UniProtKB/TrEMBL annotation:
Residues 4-63 form the Glutaredoxin domain. The keyword Transport applies. InterPro entries: GLR_AS, Glutaredoxin, Glutaredoxin_subgr, GRX_bact, Thioredoxin-like_sf. It comes from Paraburkholderia humisilvae. Keywords: Cytoplasm, Disulfide bond, Electron transport, Redox-active center, Transport. This is Glutaredoxin. Transmembrane segments: none annotated. One of its GO terms (molecular function) is glutathione disulfide oxidoreductase activity.
Length: 86
């Protein structure tokens, strides 16, 4: 089963909102805190091509940031993506 990974920083309100939305959906996720961890920040940037948090992955699928996650949810695409993990 592919894991959900969220790259975050503790003080990021969009990270908090993304994690809350995933929890609301009942989705367990791994959180990678990049604050103060240059190696993890570089890993996130290489993997996503982006410099901002959160960066959300469902398995190998890059969802993007919080706005992308919210848009996917409002378009009805989040449920099938989460269901495909099982």
């Amino acid at each position: 089963m592919p894991a959900i990974t969220v790259y975050t920083k503790p003080t990021c309100p969009y990270c908090l909102a993304a994690k809350a939305l995933l929890r609301k959906k009942g989705a367990a996720f791994s959180e990678i805190d990049i604050e103060g961890d240059r190696a993890k920040a570089l890993e996130m940037m290489e993997r996503s091509g982006r410099r901002t948090v959160p960066q959300i992955y469902v398995g190998d699928t890059h969802v993007g940031g919080y706005d992308d996650l919210r848009a996917l949810e409002s378009q009805g695409g989040l449920e099938p993506l989460l269901a495909a993990r099982v």
